[in-house]
Design goal:
The protein is an alpha+beta fold and 361 residues long. It has three domains: 3-182, no CATH class; 190-260, OB fold (Dihydrolipoamide Acetyltransferase, E2P) (Beta Barrel); 266-359, no CATH class. Helices cover 34% and strands 31% of the residues. Helix 2 runs antiparallel to helix 6 (130-143) and helix 9 packs across helix 10 (341-353).
Amino acid sequence: MPEDTLSNPTPKEFAVELHNETHRDNEVPFAVLASVLNDMQQAFYLLALQHEGRDVRERARIPAEIERRYILRAAIPKEGSYAQPATLGDPNSELFVPRDLDAVYSDFREFSTALATSNLEKLQSIVPDRQMRRRVLERFRSMIPKPNTGWGLRLRYEHDHTVELDRHAYRAVAGLLKRADDGIITTNIVTGVLVAIDFDAHEITLKYPPSQREFVCYYNESIEGRLIDQRRELIQITGSVTLDEDDSPKKVTDVVDIVGVDLSPFIVMEFEYEGRILRFRRPLEITPTLDESQQVICLEYEPLGIDIYASTRDELDTLIYEELDVLWRNYALEDPRNLSLDARELKSKLLAAIEEIGHAA
């Protein structure tokens, strides 16, 4: 048994807190909880691979020894929110080595902290390898509840150190994954129905809904874990798209991302306008839809004049706040004498639905 195992058998502890930003209840959907905890565990495994000097180009399968040594264990949740106490490592296991566990725990703690503050230099120092850094960032992107789902994530470490992984952190991850200095080329997005997967050849076959034709996508082994995670039939592929004579996808190469199409409701609680915080008296909830081509996600809420669309949910998250900014400036704050009858009605609806609660920090 390693000497470190006997010297300090105490596992590292922290808390995972899921909170409902709509304040409607304290129950957590299983799907949200499972996604957060699974991706958190996978992030720890990846950082453990780095710590132990394992080849980051290995298949998505995590070695059994790593899974056993760096296992996350849950204690009984606390009341008031879903605050899940968690520990890293099992002190009763012969693989329990505090020195290694402390190093991986520290990397996770510092990585989450740097991510919450968009500190790219710190992220690069914690995970120097570009490919490994991308894989860890992808896990954090999956871990953080999507913007406008109504859920937020906090990680509470020792000494009252709290990391808020909110919609700003989610956007930071998305931006970091697209940075040119991470070696990602200019890409396009295609949505298709998953037909087949060939893991040996690193090929995915999709059916393009507008033409009902099948096309092949070639992905890098480093993102295979993202593919394994997908359970939806309709998925989005980001890569270099080659078109046929009818402008339908013929093949996609250099695939850098694979995500399922998420049509769960958007929930907006508040937004900022010129340094002031504006909050909906009742959370605004809009369910997105796909257009006829299934390539565009649409978000429409007729009572407030919201009608936007984009290729991805992340793009919609940005557009919804831009739209609210425009509506508030051009209607809510406009002199009613300058507005048409319909515009004055929209102004009244906006003022009835939204209140100012203070200044932004």
